[in-house]
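This week, look over our next protein:
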Amino acid sequence: MKAELITIGDELLIGQVIDTNSSWMASHLNAVGVEVTRRLAVGDTKEAIKAALAEALGRVDVVLITGGLGPTNDDLTRDALAEYFSSNLVLHPEILNSIEQRFILRGIPMPSVNARMAMVPDKASIIQNDWGTAPGLLFEIGKAAVWVLPGVPAEMKGMMTASVLPALMKAAEGNTIVHRTIQTIGLAESSLAERLADWESGLPEFIRLAYLPAAGAVRLRLSAQGPNRSVLESALDLQVNMLQKLIGSNIFSFDDRTLEEVVGDRLKKANATLCTAESCTGGAISKLIVRVSGSSVYFKGSVVAYSYEAKEQILGVSMDLINKYGAVSEQCVVAMAEGARKLLNSDYAIATSGIAGPSGGTPQKPVGTVWMAVASPKKTITQCFQFGKNREFNIERSVSAALHLLLNTMDS
């Protein structure tokens, strides 16, 4: 079963409000076997609403609409759908009474405009709204169904959970959609695609692969669709095992956990602690680490040693070493990591030093050059990266690469 989502509101088109409804709806529809093939946002005009619905019904049999059911003059979804389905708007006394009771409970008089929400197209079934005032609507034309819900997220979610999803799950019986997430790091999207080309070409027809790149990482999503969940799960298990053999060292998670969450889990499991000594990243690594609740168990602290003097006076990096090799060097990050590990009495220490840009580069060390080190109880591992010329991008990539280097150090 395939569906399309239509969200209504000028506020979505001008960037005033971010559409979180579609994301929530799509994930929950997938869970009950409904494949979302398209998402569209349209403005508050009857013409746009009717045109979007006509196009959607030309492609799929299930359409879900959110927004535009309120009491004000710009809430035109109800009127547009009445026109589209050649339906008359009629006053529904029970809905009007329900709206009035809500205002009575709040101790305030009901504005007369709220009576508009009790006007219901006579060709629609009513979807009860226990979370707000505007009722939902269901239009059924042959095999096609159009579900219409308020745009208020709490109301939409409540009505989806109570009414829409159970009905669609029954209608989609016999179809299952299963997703698997594999999170990778250390390979650019193009390099990853090249390495996986033969494996990807051998995927069964009922399994699809998507590449979802982010700064320093690429998330792979495998989606399988068919009538038998156990068959799909087994097929996905096989493909994930093949991926492990091909890119195992670049995989950091088989779920939606973030890199910092995975690092935290690994440190807790090893009963180990971590600190950072940051120059070019300016505290970005430690900021990411402490976003995880409970990180105080394993994170000792951070030294942002941006200047030569801070590197020398706090971390104990010799000025002779800096003068000889430069602050952006393997020798410097080794001294920074080992100095931080000693200073903060930590099992592991990450150090970074680089040229984030856009200025400061030289022919020998161009903008984007970043050295990093991870000191452990056994050894210190280093790696040099050549990122780009964008300062923000360089910092983001450095953070991901540093945490990846930590994971590799813990594995070695």
The domain at 259-411 is CATH 3.90.950.20 (Maf protein). The longest strand covers residues 176-185. The longest helix spans residues 391-411.
